[in-house]
Design brief:
alpha/beta; Rossmann fold; Hypothetical Protein, Haloacid Dehalogenase-like Hydrolase, Chain: A, domain 2; 2 domains; 8-stranded mixed beta sheet; 5-stranded antiparallel beta sheet; 9 helices; 13 strands; 28% helix; 22% strand; globular
């Protein structure tokens, strides 16, 4: 039986807890350019208050754990659903670990290479760009999938960020498409991973591990890959800047990320 009065809340990162204008990333210090945005002081204070009241807070993102900004990671989250559900941790315990297989990666590479596409390949412990990255602009990057995977610390790939046109080709591939899922991101990019790896699957792993220590579940999100997050929680909250489909399916629409919508939503729900 769930603990009465307790809550477990799952937060998307980009566009929800914070946002970085892609056109301004190059102005950031080099070490910070590939990292997640950071929450405003009001949102950070709301997360601390939520947890101080005995609730659980989880990051639930398409990002790799190593792509989370230290200022965000320092907040009292109970765990991370990372790489769109492919890699889930609580403390030092790994609850879910589902990388792409070598055969699937090889097939993906054949499709991408035929179309002249590059990719950002993400693992739980790093990332590497293939053939110039998603935009095809980076010089000195590996030309083959095998070479790129060899540069990852764990030798595993969980998710790719590619041009949306390339993602469309992959999910339409008659041999490969049924194994993959693609979600639209900003700047005409999409993330592609195994169909079994979703935020819903990541949340299921967390809830199974928590057992009775769950309470009412809540989810905050703004984009396409948050639809599976919404399908697994009791109460779904869309950001004011969310895409129309996310807003339509949400139980509640809060303020936009620029207006500290996470803090406003937690206040409205009387969780802080």
């Amino acid at each position: 039986m769930a603990q009465p009065g307790k809550a477990t809340v799952f937060f998307d990162i980009d566009g929800t807890l914070g946002w970085t204008d892609p056109n301004k990333r190059d102005a950031l210090p080099e070490w910070e350019r590939g990292l997640s945005p950071t929450p405003s002081p009001r949102v950070a204070a709301a997360i601390r208050s939520l947890v101080a009241r005995g609730n659980h807070a989880f990051l639930c993102s398409g990002r790799s754990p190593v792509g989370i900004h230290p200022d965000l990671a320092s907040l009292p989250f109970s765990g991370i659903i990372a790489l769109a559900g492919a890699y889930v941790t609580m403390g030092d315990k790994v609850l879910r670990d589902r990388p792409l297989s070598a055969d699937v990666l090889a097939h993906i590479d054949r499709v991408l290479a035929a179309g002249g596409y590059g990719a950002l390949i993400e693992s739980a412990h790093g990332a590497v760009e293939l053939r110039g990255g998603a935009l095809g602009r980076r010089s000195g990057t590996p030309d083959t999938m095998d070479e790129a995977i060899g540069q990852l610390p764990d030798g595993c790939a969980y998710k790719l960020v590619i041009r949306s046109s390339a993602a469309d080709e992959l999910v339409a591939d008659p041999q490969l498409g049924s194994q993959l899922v693609a979600s639209r991101l900003e700047m005409q990019n999409s993330e592609v991973g195994l169909a079994c790896n979703t935020k819903k699957a990541g949340i299921k792993a967390v809830l199974s591990h928590l057992g009775d220590d769950v309470g009412v579940t809540y989810g905050f999100g703004d984009s396409e890959n948050d639809l599976t997050l919404f399908s697994e929680v009791d109460v779904s909250v869309a950001m004011g800047n969310a895409i129309p489909e996310v807003k339509r399916l949400a139980d509640y629409v809060t303020d936009s990320v620029s207006e500290d919508g996470v803090a406003s939503g937690l206040e409205h729900l009387q969780l802080v």
